[in-house]
UniProtKB/TrEMBL annotation:
Domain Formyl transferase C-terminal: 203-296
Stretches that traverse the bilayer: none
GO molecular function, one term: methionyl-tRNA formyltransferase activity
Source organism: Chromobacterium alticapitis
Protein name, as recorded: Formyltransferase
Length: 305
């Protein structure tokens, strides 16, 4: 029986941990994060899965601390796996597993290396993304690829909807890769890093809308940042506007900056390129903004972003 140490968090962490257990891998230790009380915890708990299966679980602030590395080394694991764990694992940890360290990444590597790859893919209007299992080294997301699976991004998919697809793809990739990893004959294909780029993390402030952007870009931005994420926002003369749900809806007269207005019992966003978005859900200063209350809340014919 193969033995593993698992660093994991989030839904991908839960499903991949369950896949390891389902394949009969002995999980000696789970390393996860303590939930941040200031974060919207909308995802499942890796720690709960570990408790249910009687697996030892730790939540160190620094996984690379010497005492944690010693604990991992003492597990004498064949494999180390990282499934949506948020901290970088340094060389001593990666060397602690006799047969290698492997990471599940939420993109089709080498595209979208780095942080929050699903949100970045939606922001850039990609039509597909996926999950990739790759061997880890000291540089993020650039080790040899074992396997990957693509999923479609439909024109109106939100990042949350895409994440659900990627979670299933991650589970399937790991499930079908484990026999080869255990047998020692899994493929390891070097990445051509010139075919992709590295992206950093995102903060709530990064959701600020560019009022001069074309309609397609604004639609992608809104659906990439909608719930459970902090949202795409603009500070306007009437207060802070949040766009939670939009649809592309033909053309309108171009505006110097995107303008929100009410017509035909619906909110619309007239964009700088002449494109138009139907705004199906919006919020102004923490309260719902609708076609019915637009005139009362905004006190103008249109609201510039």
């Amino acid at each position: 029986m193969s033995r593993a140490v698992v660093f994991a968090y989030h839904n991908v962490g839960v499903r991949c941990l369950k896949a390891l257990i389902g394949r009969g891998v002995e999980v000696a230790l789970v390393v996860t994060h303590r939930d941040n009380p200031n974060e919207n915890i909308w995802f499942a708990s890796v720690a709960q899965v570990a408790r249910e299966h009687g697996i030892a679980c730790i939540t160190p602030d620094d996984p690379n601390a010497p005492e944690v590395v010693e604990q991992i080394q003492a597990c004498q694991a064949d494999f180390l796996f990282s499934f949506y764990y948020r901290h970088m694992l340094k060389a001593p940890l990666l060397a602690a597993a006799k047969r290698g360290a492997y990471n599940m990444h939420g993109s089709l590597l080498p595209k979208y290396r780095g942080r929050v790859p699903i949100n970045w893919a939606v922001i850039h209007g990609e039509t597909e993304t996926g999950a990739t299992l790759h061997q880890m080294n000291v540089k993020p997301d650039n080790g040899p690829v074992v396997d990957q699976m693509a999923v479609p991004i439909l024109p109106d998919d939100t990042a949350d909807e895409v994440f659900a697809k990627v979670t299933v793809a991650a589970e399937m990739v790991l499930w079908r890769s484990l026999p080869g990893l255990i047998a020692g004959n899994a493929p390891h294909l070097q990445q051509d890093l010139s075919l992709g780029s590295y992206f950093g993390g995102r903060k709530p402030e990064d959701g600020r809308i560019d009022g001069t952007a074309p309609a397609a870009q604004l639609h992608n931005f809104a659906r990439a940042l909608t719930r459970p994420f902090p949202g795409a926002f603009a500070d306007t003369t009437a207060g802070r506007l949040l766009l939670w749900k939009t649809l592309r809806a033909g053309i309108a007269a171009p505006a110097a900056r995107a303008e929100l207005y009410s017509a035909e019992s619906r909110l619309w966003l007239r964009c700088a390129d002449g494109g138009r978005l139907a705004v199906l859900e919006a919020e102004l200063d923490g309260q719902p903004l609708t076609a019915d209350n637009f005139a009362e809340r905004v006190a103008a014919d249109a609201l510039a972003l």
